[in-house]
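Hi support team,

I'm filing this because I wasn't sure whether my run with SAJ finished correctly. The job status page said complete, but I'd like someone to confirm that the output block is well-formed before I use it downstream. Pasting the exact inputs I used:
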Amino acid sequence: MGLGYIGLPTAIIAAKHGIEVVGVDVNPAVVEMTNNGKLHIVEPGLETMLKEVVDNGSLRATSKPEQCDTYLIVVPTPFKRDHEPDISYVEAATRTLIPLLKAGDLYVIESTSPVGTTEKMADMIFTARPDLKGTLRIAYCPERVLPGNVIYELVNNDRVIGGIDQESTKAAIDFYSKFVEGTLHETNCRTAEMCKLTENSSRDVQIAFANELSLICDKAGINVWELINLANKHPRVNILQPGCGVGGHCIAVDPYFLTSAFPREAMIIGKAREINNYKAQWCAEKVKNTMLEFELKNQRKPRVAMMGLAFKPNIDDLRESPAKRITTEVMQSCNNADIMVVEPNITEHKVFKLTDYQVAYEKADIVVFLTAHNQFKTLPWTDEKVILDFCGIYKK
Ligand code: SAJ
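And here is everything the job wrote out:
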């Protein structure tokens, strides 16, 4: 249920391993493209596999769920304005399945969800279908694949599998063992839900620590890249890399599932979110101040290259990207300054006019590195330009 960044690769991999898969999505374009063997997401090597499983009939996409034996809920769980988690897609998908469920079926939620969601869905199902009590297996199994490496990680990553009871956990283990070679770790559904939130919140906190160091070092006149490199020489220290903020649909989102459910207890987790969001504002201010200083010194407005829009290096995904937010803010704050926008991983953008990265670098007086794309690392450092390196291109 859901053929997005996770659901579609999961459907394809399961079909590749001999499981007959019906892929359900509310978006008719996704259904049509999938049945035509065309990917609607970017994932290396996946389209060949899609064509294979569609051609041999082991994967079929449709907009209406059909009676199966195992149901995976892989729909989005965004959050609302005030960072309240929104599980309405999980509820809606579950509701459409209730009439189809039969004794012995397996129902698994994969979507990142607030602690307690699986039990909530179990209550909803058993209230509508008391006949299924004790025979329907219900579990939670989060995914942890890295976009761009999904095929390998879906098969090889360990998985955490938590049922509402022992039989459910076992049934889910039996299912995933058909295509997962990583170790399948048994637990209960609340712990499995919490594990996903813990993994991503821990990363957000670690990144916040690195970003906080970058603020301190900027004020202290210390090269933060050199500092972190030296501190990490300690055998048990592993400080992550500062950036221009934290983007994407995961690390920047999942911690709110904990701060909204446990506002008094999730203190570091909440503060880390504030720091990572503040870092993007701090970068935007830095760019604007640097532009003003240039104008005062040179009696003309600077030509500025904003290098990178994607939310992390070497991908084309701009979702929740701090680089995009910073670029927008800088462009809005300085009329008729010459701002060149660079993103080598996309060819066009409906809002930004894109400039080739080498052309922008040559023409710019101020070069702002926002996303550490590999192409940028080939650009030579020069004292002729003002370089703001927020993502460690040169580590100077
Ligand atoms: N970032 C930094 N400094 C770092 C590392 C990352 O600023 O040292 C930034 C990145 O630029 C990006 C954001 O953090 O804006 C998130 O980057 P990421 O490398 O965590 O990538 P995601 O969000 O695509 O993937 C994460 C992964 N989770 C963990 O590493 C714990 C992935 O395994 C999860 O499956 C994914 O979230 C998810 O779907 O939950």
